[in-house]
Structure formats: structure tokens, C-alpha cells
Design goal:
Blueprint (H helix, E strand, L loop, with lengths): L10 E5 L6 H13 L7 E5 L6 H8 L7 E6 H5 L1 H4 L12 E17 L7 H10 L4 E5 L5 H13 L3 E5 L3 H9 L6 E4 H4 L7 E6 L25 E9 L4 H15 L2 H9 L10 H22 L6
Parallel strand pairs: 1-2, 1-3, 5-6
Antiparallel strand pairs: 3-9, 4-7, 4-8, 4-9
Length: 305
Amino acid sequence: DAFAQAVNRTARTIIGFPAGGASDIVARLYAERLRGAYAPQVVVENRSGAAGRIAMETVKAAEPDGTTWVQTPASMATLQPHVFPREVRYDALTDFIPVSTVATFPFALCVPMGHPARTLQEFIAWGRAQTGEVAWASPAAGAAPHFLGILFAQAAGIRMTHVPYRGAVPAVQDLVAGRLPMFLGVLGDVSPQHGAGLRMLALTSETRNPRFPDVPTFAEQGQPRLTNEEWFGVLLPANTPAALVTALHQGIVAAAQQAELRAALERLEFSTVVSTSPRNFAERIRREREAWGAIVRESGFQPEG
């Protein structure tokens, strides 16, 4: 009933990316199920720009009254502080209260169908045999796939040059056309073409994906450091009352148990994974932020400008 709602006015999920993308779809699936349960209305607001940082800053500055939260990819909280130290003007653990993950997804390493390599080991052998640098693409400079690719090149002993794209779509088009030998990106962005325009050689997930049982994980193929699952997570502004944090967490947990939400996320190659508690989610952010710090330092990456 209405009296059980945590807040009595419209709540907003802020996302840092345009309508129609994966972030937006996930946010809307949850907003529908939090409506009436957590708040009378839950709307999704798209505040795109600065690679997601505008959304983070908007929520950092919002009233801590439980009506405004951000749904963000992991990288905004764990990776970007190391990559763009001057631009990132927030701390996920002190300027926010982490509530829960809402979905997780792995990355995939792929080659065009015409590539001679049919396995990761064959790709490594091919890469080592090339006289020049091997070009490879990711959806964006400074994002998780970029650093996973650097880790892969170091571990495999291949000299590789990163070609940053603005999003997965143009990169996958160039891969399928044979203009690139390798792409590393979000599973859902490449899985529709698997076995047609491209071939997935490895996934960063901990276990094989039941929908693609033929694609081994990196860990299975001797590259355990490339195990990485990106998440979308919900964070409230710092100083939000504990009762509201608990209520939003419980609302997310209840939404995630609904079969149609799980099915909709599975179609995007996302898993419905929610944190057991806000504290547990905060610990995950702390742990992953430290791990990315070491990876970025080792990579020798220099932020532009």
C-alpha cells in the first residue's frame, strides 16, 4: 500500500548515457518495478556527457533524501579515478552510499570470421608471428576493455596498438569487414554476430556462458588476470538516511527476483546480480578500485591532455 513507500514523491534514476542504450534499458526495467513499491513514481533521467561523469556529479550534489540516485557502470567508480585523476571530482565511497549492483556482464575477445585463429592460443601464436604491431580495438579509450586488452597483450607477449572507437557499433562493423584483427568489448555488443561476422575466442566471465558453451573463459585458457565482470550499480548521495538506503536495496532485490526482468536482462547478455547488502557492495567497489589502480599503473597509460 502507499504507506509502505519509502518516499512519498517522484524519485529519479540518473544515468550518464543516452536513451536506448544498455544503461538506459536496465534503468527503465528497474524503475518500472520500483514504482509504487519504493516511490509513487520512478523516472529515468539521461544526463549524458563526460563519459558518465556528469551523472555522477549531478547525484553527488543532489539532496540526500532518497529521491535521487545514479545507476552507473563499474568503471565510473573503480577505474576512471585512476585514468582521469584530474577530471574525476567524486569518490564513490565518500561522496555516495553504494546500494547494490543491478546487473553484471562480461567482455569478449573476438576476431573476424576470416581470421586464421580459431582459438585464443592460435591468435596468440598468430600475433607473435606478425612483424609489425597488431592493431586492436575497444569501444572507448580509458574504459575497462582498453586495459584488459593491454593486460592481454602483456601476458601473451604480442606487440599491439590500441585503436579507440566511439562506441562498439563502428568498431564491430570494422571488425566484421576484416579491417581489424581483434576487438575486445561487451559480450552483448558482439554475441549477435558470433559464428556469422565474427568469432568469439574468450570471455572475461568466471564461468562459461550457457548461451555460448563453445566459448571458453580467459581463465580456462591460462589468463586468470583477465577475469573481469563489469556491473551496473546504484549509488545514493552521501548522508542519505540509513532507512532509505535499506529500503532502496530491498526494492532492488525484490525487482531482481521477477522473472520477466531477469529474462529481459538475459536477452542483453546481462546477469541479474544484486549485492547481499549495501556494505557488501561498498567492499566490492573498494576492492575493484584497488585492483584497477595496479593495472593502470602497470600499463603505463598516460591520460590525454
